[in-house]
Amino acid sequence: MKYYYLFFLFVVASCQPKKAIQKKPSFLIGEWIRTNSSDSLKTYENWCKDFTGFGLTLKGKDTTFFEQLRILEKNDSLFLEVSGINESTTLFQFTEQTATSFVCENLSNEFPKRIKYYIDEPLLRAEVSNESFQIDFVFERIE
After folding, report:
1. Is residue 19 predicted with pLDDT exceeding 80?
2. pTM for this structure?
3. Is 33 buried (19+), middle (13-18) or exposed (0-12) by CB count in 10 A?
4. Which domain holds residue 92?
């Protein structure tokens, strides 16, 4: 009887659906420049094939903003990791994803709580928001 019970547990455990691991968003890869910002500012976002990157804003030759970005897998989920802005790194968990877009959230973060990236050919768009405020970024690829 004991062996039937063990066999039953094995069959039940092996029939459980496995969680599909999300693919990292390859549409991000490349060098991008923001097209919807002040003429005195130049904002760039660069993504490497290893899904590390950075965001950078220049006013003339002076850096006014810099953040390090990384997409990582943790516990079978994807996260956008942002560092260089706050004292500690902030993680945003992917909550929605298609081949050309993703949404990630960290509801305990003051701003942003939600980040959305999507392709709007030939542009890359990003929206960073909380419940009451949203900033839109429009990037075009640098050739």
Report:
1. no
2. 0.84
3. middle
4. 22-141
